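Retro notes - structure team

What went well: the batch runner handled both jobs without manual restarts.
What didn't: labels got mixed up in the shared folder, which is why I'm recording both outputs here explicitly, each with its sequence directly above its tokens.

Job 1
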Amino acid sequence: MAKKRVVPLWFNKVTKLVLRTPLIHRVVSHNIMLLTYTGRKTGKVYTIPVSYTKHGNAVTMFTNHNWSKNLIDKVPVTLRLQGRQLEAALDFITTDVEQITPVLLEHLRNKPADARIHKVTYDDTGKPKADEVRRAAGNVRMIMLRLV
């Protein structure tokens, strides 16, 4: 399922720096957070910027990269979310297109910058094209974390 990198590594490094900087993080922290997790095989700690949607104490994100395999049930992760360090735990991961499609559609309505990553375009009314969202849903994992 892992795909060619869409976002260059230098961009991730700059984004991490911005998200860790007081006050400046506000430029991007409503769309991007830092996710810190431990590799299940290596034990190494990784921190990556990811786009997210937050509803109450649930945080949803989408990826086509294998790092999500490290988010094992009940293993805590740390989020730097809108300037705050928060603990979270895996609620669920799915590759079910029927589950992912409506959630990804809503995500792209609210985060149009992510459309390029998912190769989704918008119709004349400004809505993500449903057939493209469904195709994109078949290429990602949807991850939901619960704040603890």
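Job 2
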Amino acid sequence: MPHTFSARIESVAPGASAAWVSLALPAKVSGALPSRGNVPVAGTIEGFAFRTSALPDGHGGHHLMVNRAMREGAGVGPGDRVTVVLDVDTASREPKVPADVAKAVAASPTAKALWADLTPRCRAEWVGHVEEAKKPETRARRIAKMVERLAQGTRRVYD
């Protein structure tokens, strides 16, 4: 069930930098979340739609980081009071895995086993790394290296 509330966007960086800003979830909203840890959420801030995670604040509540896309889309910034509509995001965050990546991973039993155990976020990082390649030979090389590293137990692309 969506929660509607008002909150002030606050800078969390030294010197009131607009690069790192967040808003605290009211205790009632935070308490309604299914976990004290990171919780995937979706909603709107001043009518601008977003998907993100509610993060634990270290004091039993949650906050949302308000990134640049959210600030620009909603036309808001640090110090502004905003209206937020928020709900737990139950939509899949599973990335679309290209056929060549899926085929290569499936061909290695050890890589396939680790791939199945990765979080959607980790799989999305691997897919993104492959898809950043501009040349087909770079893409093929990245896929081969990805499968090799997965087979060795490397979970994250930048580890």
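One thing worth noting from job 2: The mean pLDDT is 93.
We'll revisit the folder naming next retro.
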